[in-house]
Every structure is written in structure tokens, then in C-alpha cells.
Amino acid sequence: MFITLEVIAMIITGSAAIIRTVSDPASPASFGDWLGYSVVYHTGAVSFFMMDLFIFFGVACLTGVQAYQIARNITTNEMANSMRYTYLRGPAGRFRNPFDHGVRKNCSDFLVNGYNEDVERLEHASRTDEEIGMIQMTSAVSQNGEGHSHHVLRPQQEE
């Protein structure tokens, strides 16, 4: 919300700087003369507008990226390190986000609740308690019989 409000504030203040320079009754009529006049007589407004415009594109891009990540229910860290985290890889080794519940639910969870419970979306048909118990038991032992796996399938919760 902060960066969205920042984009809106930058649009308003940039518009105010333009209005300030355009509304000067002493400014010349032609564009080239007006531009030179504005740089000389409205140095602060022109400088502010240039900095505002320069920063605006970075903040607008950041806002777009964050909105995209909210819609997909994924963090910046997970996006940057998606190949390092096994829970973000599907059966063929391609990227798969198990926490993506669709744009509408992801956005409502984030904007209305302020958080989500990170419940995995299972792609298989609903499993019985016995099958889930077997999956948890077999995933707790690695291939060579030592150690524990940190990736355990969670049962699908009803909404």
C-alpha cells in the first residue's frame, strides 16, 4: 500500500509542478520560449519535476512487481531463489508455486486478511488420512535411510 500511495503522491506533486509553471501569466506563448523561461524563473518546480519523473519509473515498476507477486502469493526471496527451494519445483523440475490459490483468493487473502496461512494447494485428488500418514512416514526417511526430509505434504484443508 505504501508504494501505491507513493506513486499516487508522485503523480499529484508532478502535476502540481507542471500546473505551477504553465499557469504563470508572464510565460511566453511558444513552447521553446516557455521552456527556457520556466527553467530560469521556476528553477525549483522544474528541478522537482525532473527528479519526480526520474524516480517515478522505478517506483511504478516496483509497484507493478509487488502487485504481481501478491497476485501469485510468492515472496521476493522465493522468486529470486526459486531454483534453490525444492518445494517450488514440480515433478518435471519446472517452477511450481504450491501456495498459489488463484489471483482472486491470493489478493483477497493479502488485502483483506493481511496475511495467509501458507496452505499448500495439492494438485492430486483428496487423499485419505491413511494415505497422508504413509506419505509423511515415507518422506521422513531419506533414500539411504538416514536423516529427515523437511518437505512433508500437508493435508488439504476445506474452506
UniProtKB/TrEMBL annotation:
<keyword id="KW-1133">Transmembrane helix</keyword>
<keyword id="KW-0040">ANK repeat</keyword>
<keyword id="KW-0677">Repeat</keyword>
<keyword id="KW-0732">Signal</keyword>
<feature type="transmembrane region" description="Helical">
    <location>
        <begin position="40"/>
        <end position="65"/>
    </location>
</feature>
<dbReference type="GO" id="GO:0016409">
    <property type="term" value="F:palmitoyltransferase activity"/>
</dbReference>
<keyword id="KW-0472">Membrane</keyword>
<protein>
    <recommendedName>
        <fullName>Protein S-acyltransferase</fullName>
    </recommendedName>
</protein>
<keyword id="KW-0812">Transmembrane</keyword>
<dbReference type="GO" id="GO:0000139">
    <property type="term" value="C:Golgi membrane"/>
</dbReference>
<feature type="signal peptide">
    <location>
        <begin position="1"/>
        <end position="17"/>
    </location>
</feature>
